[in-house]
Amino acid sequence: MLLGLAIILISGFVGSFSNTHFDGVIDVHPGLGAPLWFFLAEGVISWVCMAVPLFFFGLIVSRSSFRMIDVLGTQALARWPYLIAAIVTLPDANRRVVVYLMSKFAQTAPVAAISSIDVLIFGFAMIVTILMTIWMVALMYRAYAVSCNIKGAMAVATFIVGLIAAEAISKLALFLLVRAFFVSP
User: Fold this and answer.
1) Cα 19 from Cα 14, distance rounded (Å)
2) Would you write out the chain's pLDDT as a tens digit for each of its 185 residues?
3) Distances, alpha carbon 11 to alpha carbons 17, 81, 148, in Å
4) 76 FRET partner, CA 20 to 30 A, in 9, 51, 86, 126?
5) Whole-number Å distance between alpha carbons of 88 and 91
6) Taking a C-beta distance cutoff of 8 angstroms, is the pair 133, 22 a contact?
């Protein structure tokens, strides 16, 4: 579990250099700058929001005993592909393309000029990030099935419900965190 937690924190740390937010159980987004603690908190919140529902689904569905520490540990380790996502979003080309796209979306004059190399780097980063997200979800499912000793349709169904619930819970938790620390009363 400690290795997985370290990877989550390192991913948040690396993501902070490019303002890459892991702001949900399966979300990776470029965003605004924030204090380092916020990038770290996003990963921890997302991890816990995934592990807790899966633990409870495991208690309901599994016919064997298992430990919460096993669910927490395997879910933490399953998040390691996001370290790769954090690394591929580091080049400044990604930020320039995001700023350019946002200015186009807002129908304002582009703030940053982008080159074809910027677009290629951004495209590569997005493809890698999508692949890492898919890989992470596959690892999360496998971690759930192994740590709770369940398989088959019930494992798939409870994992999907748990993933959807965890995504909603993580979004709510992060919204409340932003509201508490970044929005003045």
Assistant:
1) 9
2) 999 999 999 999 999 999 999 999 999 988 888 999 999 999 999 999 999 999 999 999 999 999 999 999 999 999 999 999 999 999 999 988 988 888 888 777 767 689 999 999 999 999 999 999 999 999 999 999 999 999 999 999 999 999 999 999 999 999 999 888 877 55
3) 10, 9, 26
4) 126
5) 7
6) no
